[in-house]
Predict the 3D structure of the following.
Amino acid sequence: MPKSVFILKCTIFLLFFCSSLYLRNYIAFYERAKFSFKKEIFCPKNNQSFSNDDYSKNDLENECEYLWRGNRSAICRWINYHGKINSSHKDETWAENLKDCDQWIKARGYPLEANSAEEADFPIAYSISLYKDVDQVERLLRLIYWPQNLYCFHVDAKSPDYLHLAIQRLSRCFANVFVTKSEYVFWSHYSVLRASLNCLNDSATKYANHSWKFIINLSGQDFPLKTNREFVAILKTFNNTNDVELAQENQFSRYWYEHRLIFDKYGNLITHKPIFELFKLPIPYDLKILKGNLAASLSRKFVEFMLNNAVSLAFIKWLEGTDTADEHLWATLNYNVIRGYGIAPGGFDQRCVNFSKLVHQRFVSRYVKWRDGNVQCHGKYVRDVCIFGVGDLANLISSDKTQFFANKFYTNYQTMAFYCMEKWMLNKIRRNATIDSERLIKTDGLYFNGKICM
């Protein structure tokens, strides 16, 4: 066989073999990539990242429709896009937008009156802690704002001046929005809890004449999954019961020893660590420490009790030197029988609490995807918490999602995720969506106050 013919046959064979291999892998990719909340989404390595400049407003909304349905092709189109979408606002100059409050409120579409008499008669307060991203925080406020409610912002004292200025100006545009005293906040330190307590205290004292029924504790990275109408319908069925996550605390070193912030010579935080020579025990009034989530829906009666009861105040003071105090306050006060008082207002009857059966679904104030469980995070993990991406939207908007808020979103990460969630929620508000709150409560068996005990 001539050498040239042999080379030609080898070339044809290699081309055929490589094409077959590519086709097999291509088909396998699409077989693996069938959308599921529980499976990872595989996108081709040569996946093209699109810019929002390639799309009109209508095109973007059509893309959202695909993402809401969990369309694999749309997810892969936007999974690598992290730029701005229909927004030119920068945090550094954001305060300039608020020189004319009336114009701003009108342009942004803030409601000027309650949506219904039922909502007007059941105002809700919000405590929102933030340290960055004014644009995201304002968009959160826009989605949950109603004039009958009350809104408190806590801005980390370490945040830049332009962020403090922007939030101050934003609050001055509304009679029912205010900014509480700033604390220097450090992760897992008592200051995280102190920031929320500042808002709760001001809401109960400085705004004592406001008739809010519940206060919902949030961060600037939360996103609403329910409308105000739905919040009211569900909270009314609580019958003043607090919605607090409840779990055993097995990391005893968090509160057995004094914890202190350690800084380097330049003032940068190194760690928040226990000092084993300094014991914190005993716990005031023999309280059993439980843990939960800083996010919670707390009845007004509970907040007033917490801020005035001697046992509660002693416990809050004792928490100052512990680790993750923000995870311990609500849960501990809601579970324990308080000496000289009994069960805290809206607290749980211990006879109804079976820790072996407690699941995250029984806590509805916040949906968090931790680095565990059987639901895939299609974004990324930061400190073991999922930062939601475009592949998570179908799960978040599913009709069986019972939670009030989803945590966390970053507007500079897979930005179509926040953009499309925002469109979905605005559509939901316009539809004036309703909810069968009684069915929701009875199905999940959420509460441990003796009224519902499953």
About this structure: Residues 79-454 form one domain.
